[in-house]
Write a structure and sequence with these properties.
Layout: H1 2-15, E1 22-24, H2 33-48, E2 56-59, H3 61-69, H4 78-93, E3 106-112, E4 122-126, H5 132-140, H6 143-160, H7 166-180, H8 190-208, H9 216-230, H10 234-243, E5 251-257, E6 268-273, E7 285-290, H11 294-299, E8 305-306, H12 310-313, H13 315-332, E9 336-343, E10 346-354, H14 359-371, H15 377-383, H16 386-392, E11 396-397, H17 399-407, E12 411-414, E13 416-419, E14 422-428, H18 431-439, E15 444-448, H19 456-461, E16 464-467, H20 475-483, E17 487-489, E18 494-497, E19 502-505, E20 511-513, E21 517-521, E22 526-529, E23 534-535, H21 543-555, E24 559-563, H22 567-575, E25 581-585, H23 587-590, H24 596-604, H25 608-632, E26 640-647, H26 660-673, H27 677-692, H28 705-710, H29 712-731, E27 735-742, H30 748-768, E28 776-781, H31 784-788, H32 790-794, E29 799-802, H33 804-812, H34 819-829, H35 853-870, E30 875-878, H36 886-894, E31 899-902, H37 907-925
Parallel strand pairs: 14-15, 15-16, 16-17, 24-25, 24-31, 25-26, 26-27, 27-28, 28-29, 29-30, 30-31
Antiparallel strand pairs: 1-2, 2-5, 3-4, 3-5, 6-7, 6-9, 7-8, 9-10, 11-23, 12-22, 13-17, 14-21, 18-19, 19-20, 21-22
The structure holds phosphoenolpyruvate and magnesium ion (MG).
Domain PEP-utilising enzyme C-terminal: 542-917
Pfam family, one: PEP-utilizers
GO molecular function, one term: pyruvate, phosphate dikinase activity
């Protein structure tokens, strides 16, 4: 009866409001993540499944967004709906908010659509003041518990809502612990806690400039505001930028009646995963603390027990928890990350969400779940983030280097293997300094006693993380796994002295100062002094990953090719699953030490004859280079070769010559020295020659096909080398498909003429080989004019390959060499503008990494349509850096390119991203 009436209270409040801003847990479900956030949707689903969830309600993400739209005012009706919902919770629990006799305490937690662990704020035990604490004492008959809850509340509320410095509170706690001669917070006696509460209130008042709020409704109002505001704190923004989570989603706020894990030794709290999120192994994995509140586990202040121990501590609870965990995994068909609290022997579930897992676990679990019949191969393919695949190809320590480190006694300590991968770098003890150094390109390992959300900016740029405290679910471990960073956590064999910028190894006199090299292995938990070289992972043994990628191949339409300049790159690309070479940049071959002098001679040759003679010397080198690449791309069993696109010389010639400035300095030095006539003469001549071909804007100058038109004999030599290499292999029965690519075409006449010149040479070699080589001529589309006139160009080309590095450079007018260092990253991170509090973002992402669909993408799409309109057999691919970027791959799939080409290491990512793109189009079409 009462329940009915109070429900009506909420319905009535909603009717009086422009929108329903508040949902009881019993009103939501798992599909409402957009509106209720992941946490809200998860607890709603659990509530409706009849699991033991403390009653509560969720304020929607829409309310958060409206709060920002209304200059940080609650949207109309929100507060009334909150009060009505709170009243329902009072009825359900039989308690009263602010009641002196039977007080209801609540938690106020953030919860966005996508989990952002630890990035936003939470306040626990809200609803305590000097009066309600008396009720708590009377009810529990436990003064210590009540005052402990009170002091925790003041501490948390002050930090989160009043924005005070947490350090002062810690000092008070330390002081009382020392005086009482106890080690942990849990041992501080009740009489001290009562005094601590008084001192905490004074600190809060001193720091915030106003009395600590005693009105519980005021506490609630302020806490909700603080959680809304935490959506836009720096660490949350950094995290969203890094994970490409949109900034306009907003967070929901969950208000839930408190249950207490700190009510003695039949109470406790913990977090657990239904499978091991570091390895994917199918065992319940996690940890808990008896007589503690939730934040104690995550904060890593006390070291928790493994979940398996719960079987001995509280056997009934353990069995029930195991059963619920299993049920939730079966229900969601995914590993769940669970938070629970036991209050005096009674289990409560506080959260379930899909667990963050590292790459190895993501792949293993996806494959295992297909084999267990829980999900389909399609679902498995959709579930693994392409960037996670990359982590499986992460570095590990080079064996010899590690053995040496061991032999030299450089193993310092062992901690928890919290997130795999190996890294070395300078030990840095502060997130700000780590950020500055990391951004400047210095390898950094961030070393902290434990990390907190305030350290995230340092973690984002670090190569690895080392913490002295905290378990497998501590902040450091969770964030590092999400970022794919190696992490050793809970390394209690070291003591970190932040103020002195050093750590000491317990039981020895070894000290590591800031800036010294250390190496960590997140797979074993080992920490070494000095640098240990790292090596790449062994793809051949990644059987689960291979299985997943084979499934991906069943769904994708895009071909995945690789950019490879050397036979060893080509071999690696094939091993990773590449089906062709989309770009072989031949100029890299010119840079090899024994060839560079010949190349320089060729460039500086005053006559055609001398140039030709240098080219004649280069021809055999190039022929053997190309032979090597073709051979790597031939299936040894069938003799069938994958397509290989070889690009004719592209860069401006000065790249092969000594720097003009250095040479000028040298000539001046020789002149002032005197007595070096011969050398001076030679260097002066070289200086003049280089001076003669100097350009103001070489990247817009004599390069690409312009170079080939100016010195046709270079192109002729390269074409000869390509086709003669192919002819030699064709004579051995191999079927080759060389594609000769002409770069930087802007006008069709450029292509027409280069092709005319080379066709004669090609026909001659092909004829000699008895017509056994199937070669093609094509061009790169990397200038806006080429894209705009693609219909004309396509008449002269068998294929197009989009050179999106240059196309981005020339479309935006951003120098690909300088823009990122000068201004472009500020465009993405946001500019500081005088008079504005928030940074102004100019671009959503770095267009050299993620294709700018709106501008560059439009040009590509236009070129695709125009090209195909005149040449339906035109083959279309992309070979700029974007070919390995999942978002850009999705675009390529959408506009119907034939293939993407990327660096060999990115081939697995591209296979998966291409499959996901195809599956998502299919879904949209349905
Ligand atoms: C491009 O411009 O996208 C490209 C692949 O060529 P390069 O990077 O060699 O200029
Ligand atoms: Mg280019």
């Amino acid at each position: 009866m009462t329940q009915q009436v109070t429900h009506q209270g909420l319905d009535e409040a909603v009717r009086q409001s422009p929108k329903k801003w508040v949902y009881l847990f019993s009103e939501g479900n798992a599909t409402m993540r957009n509106l209720l956030g992941g946490k809200g949707a998860g607890v709603s689903e659990m509530t409706n499944a009849g699991l033991p969830v403390p009653p509560g309600f969720t304020i929607t993400t829409e309310a958060c967004n409206a709060y920002y739209e209304h200059q940080k005012q609650f949207p109309l009706g929100t507060w009334d709906q909150v009060l009505a919902a709170l009243h329902i919770i009072e009825t359900q629990t039989g308690k009263g908010f602010g009641s002196r006799e039977n007080p209801l305490l609540v938690s106020v937690r953030s919860g966005a659509k996508f989990s952002m662990p630890g990035m936003m704020d939470t306040v626990l035990n809200l609803g305590i003041n000097d009066e309600t604490v008396q009720g708590l004492i009377a009810l529990t008959n436990d003064e210590r518990f009540a005052y402990d809850a009170y002091r925790r509340f003041i501490q948390m509320f002050s930090k989160i809502v009043l924005d005070t410095d947490p350090h002062d509170f810690e000092l008070v706690l330390e002081h009382y612990k020392n005086n009482a001669g106890v080690l942990t917070d849990a041992d501080i006696p009740a009489s001290d806690l009562k005094q601590i509460v008084g001192e905490f209130k004074q600190i809060a008042e001193r720091q915030s400039g106003e009395p600590f709020p005693t009105d519980v409704f005021q506490q609630l109002h302020k806490a909700i505001e603080a959680v809304f505001s935490s959506w836009n704190n720096k660490r949350a923004i950094d995290y969203r930028n890094f994970n490409r989570i949109p900034h306009n989603l907003g967070t929901a706020v969950n208000i839930q009646s408190m249950v207490f894990g700190n009510m003695g030794n039949t109470s406790g709290t913990g977090v657990a995963f239904t499978r091991n999120p570091a390895t994917g192994e199918k065992v319940l994995y996690g940890e808990y603390l008896l007589n503690a509140q939730g934040e104690d586990v995550v904060a890593g202040i006390r070291t928790p027990s493994p979940i398996s121990r719960l079987q001995q501590d509280l056997p009934g609870v353990y069995e029930q928890f195991k059963e619920i965990a299993n049920r939730l995994e079966q229900h969601y068909h995914d590993i769940q990350d669970l938070e629970f609290t036991v209050e005096q022997g009674r289990l409560y579930m506080l959260q379930t969400r899909s667990a963050k897992r590292n790459a190895g676990a993501a792949v293993k679990v996806a494959v295992d779940m297909v084999e267990e019949g829980l999900i389909t191969p399609e679902e498995a393919v959709k579930r693994v983030e392409p960037s996670q695949v990359y982590q499986l190809l992460l570095p590990r320590f080079e064996d010899a280097s590690k053995r040496r480190a061991e032999a030299e006694g450089r193993l310092l300590a062992k901690g928890l293997n919290a997130s795999p991968g190996a890294a070395y770098g300078k030990a840095i003890f502060d997130a700000d300094r780590a950020e500055a150094l990391g951004k400047a390109g210095t390898p950094v390992v961030l070393v902290r006693p434990e990390t907190s959300p305030d350290d995230v900016h340092g973690m984002l740029v670090a190569r690895g993380i080392l913490t002295a405290r905290g378990g497998a679910t501590s902040h450091a471990a969770v964030v590092a796994r999400g970022l794919g960073l190696p992490c050793v956590a809970g390394c209690e064999e070291i003591r970190v002295h932040e103020a002195e910028h050093l750590f000491r190894v317990v039981g020895s006199d070894v000290v590591i100062h800031e800036g010294e090299d250390i190496s960590i292995d997140g797979a074993t938990g080992e920490v070494f002094a000095g640098m240990i070289k790292t090596v790449e992972a062994d793809f051949a043994n990644e059987t689960d990953l291979k299985k997943l990628l084979d499934w991906a191949d069943m769904f994708r339409h895009l071909g995945v090719w690789a950019n490879a300049d050397y036979p060893r790159d080509a071999q690696r690309a094939v091993a990773f699953g590449a089906q062709g070479i989309g770009l072989c940049r031949t100029e890299h071959m010119f840079m090899e030490p024994e060839r560079l002098p010949i190349v320089q001679k060729m460039i500086l040759a005053p006559t055609y004859e001398e140039r030709q003679s240098a080219l004649d010397q280069l021809l055999p080198f190039q022929r053997s280079d190309f032979k090597g690449i073709f051979e790597a791309m031939v299936n040894p069993r069938t003799g069938e070769g994958y397509p290989v696109v070889i690009r004719l010389i592209d860069p401006p010639l000065h790249e092969f010559l000594p720097s003009y400035e250095d040479l000028l300095v040298e000539v001046t030095r020789l002149e002032t020295l005197g007595g070096h006539e011969a050398e001076l003469k030679e260097k002066t001549a070289l200086l003049e020659a280089i001076g003669a071909i100097r350009e103001m804007n070489p990247m817009l100058g004599l390069r690409g096909c312009r170079l080939g038109l100016t010195f046709p004999e270079i192109n002729v030599m390269q074409t000869r080398a390509i086709l003669e290499a192919a002819a030699e292999l064709a004579a051995q029965g191999k079927k080759l498909h060389p594609k000769i690519m002409i770069p930087l075409v802007g006008h069709v006449n450029e292509l027409k003429e280069v092709r005319r010149q080379l066709q004669t040479v090609a026909d001659e070699i092909a004829e000699k080989s008895g017509g056994r080589i199937d070669y093609k001529f094509g061009t790169m589309i990397e200038l806006p004019r080429a894209a705009l006139t693609a219909d004309k160009i396509a008449r002269e080309a068998d294929f197009f390959s989009f050179g999106t590095n240059d196309l981005t450079q020339t479309t935006f007018g951003f120098s690909r060499d300088d823009a990122e260092g000068k201004f472009l990253l500020h465009y993405v991170d946001g500019l500081d503008v005088p008079g504005l509090k928030d940074k102004v973002k100019i671009l959503p992402s770095n267009p050299f990494q993620t294709l700018d669909r709106e501008g560059v993408g439009q040009l590509i799409q236009m070129a695709v349509e125009k090209g195909r309109s005149v040449n339906p057999h035109l083959e279309l691919g992309i070979c700029g850096e974007h070919g390995g970027d999942p978002d850009s791959i999705e675009f390529c799939s959408e506009i119907g390119l034939d293939y993407v080409s990327c660096s060999p290491f990115r081939v697995p990512i591209a296979r998966l991203a291409a499959a996901q793109a195809a599956l998502s189009h299919a879904e949209k079409d349905r």
